[in-house]
Amino acid sequence: MASSSNYDGILLGMGNPLLDISAVVDDEFLTKYDIKLNNAILAEEKHLPMYDEMSSKFNVEYIAGGATQNSIKVAQWMLQTPGVTSYMGSIGKDKYGEAMKKDATAAGVNVHYYEDESAPTGTCGVCVVGGERSLIANLSAANCYKVDHLKQPENWALVEKAKFYYIAGFFLTVSPESIQLVSEHAAANNKVFTMNLSAPFICEFFKDVQEKFLPYMDFVFGNETEARTFSKVHGWETEDVEQIAIKISQLPKATGTYKRTTVITQGADPVVVAEDGKVKKYPVIPLPKEKLVDTNGAGDAFVGGFMSQLVKEKSIEECVKAGCYASNVVIQRSGCTYPEKPDFN
């Protein structure tokens, strides 16, 4: 890589930092709490007893998570140069928050958390059955992020320094004002702004705010379920992921600096990339079922790998390759974790 200073803080993420409370559960548990695999939702009243029940009934692991934070950490790991990535979000003043800060800093990410005085650090229940995951997020402090934190000079400096931005769709529910400032800055300065569809509920219930920022998105990431939900919500009447990817890429843009690229992952099926009205498909690295630990963080890791090459201005093919490599590593481990060094070239 060129001198690290060129890349210093080149990628900035904003999102909900959550501590994953992860366990292999059973179908009975899924039914009891009305949980669907391969889904992500916000916790409701009925889910709140779930976290304690998980830790009493099952073998629970606590892993630093949060979709955007996962992606940023993976990009950082792939790049192997401390401080090339930065991250902002809100944590509580508690042991979980401290653990998260320690974890992200050890990973080499420059974290500027807002620390909320009253709410505890957010958690995410990760229920795994047969390697498939379902996420139930209790945002707590993560929900308390305020645009005032972003506007503080030492934090806005991270926005100024970055040339690429990644924000998971989950942050749309927390601070649209912050997303607006960052997306407008990116557009005005010819920088690259990227987001993720993130979950069916975002496409359904946060459609208006998602649509507000779509014109700013140079890259849209998502998986096949989210893409189909997006299509349904927009009345497109197609389940064809390739068609949906093309349609998303052709939605209006705020500026003409970059064409929009849509990148849709489909689990073990090929990655669909749409740009210029055309689709390319890239196979993922095959993994025997017995090597799958859990899919938690697979999509996040894909984005992290992808972004690690995008910031180096590599081809889309290289970006996808890196994304597939990173997600292949992560699904063979619990949560969004990885070995000390990547083995990618």
Strand tally: 14
Structural class: alpha/beta
How helical, in percent, are the residues?
25-40%
User: Describe the biggest sheet?
Assistant: 9 strands, mixed
Topology, element by element:
Elements: H1 4-7, E1 11-14, E2 18-24, H2 27-32, E3 40-42, H3 50-57, E4 61-65, H4 67-79, E5 85-92, H5 95-106, E6 110-116, E7 123-129, E8 132-138, H6 147-151, H7 153-161, E9 164-168, H8 176-188, E10 192-196, H9 200-205, H10 207-213, E11 219-223, H11 224-233, H12 241-250, E12 261-266, E13 269-275, E14 278-282, H13 298-310, H14 316-330
Parallel strand pairs: 1-5, 1-9, 2-7, 3-8, 5-6, 9-10, 10-11, 11-12
Antiparallel strand pairs: 2-4, 7-8, 12-13, 13-14
Helix pairs in contact: 4-13, 13-14
Could you explain how this protein is built, in words?
- This protein has 14 helices and 14 strands.
- The strands form two sheets. Strands 6-5-1-9-10-11-12-13-14 form a nine-stranded mixed β-sheet, sandwiched between helices. Strands 3-8-7-2-4 form a five-stranded mixed β-sheet.
- The protein is globular.
- It has 345 residues and is of the alpha/beta class.
- The two termini are 12 Å apart.
- The chain is 38% helix and 23% strand.
- A hairpin with a 2-residue loop joins strand 7 (123-129) and strand 8 (132-138).
- Belongs to the carbohydrate kinase PfkB family.
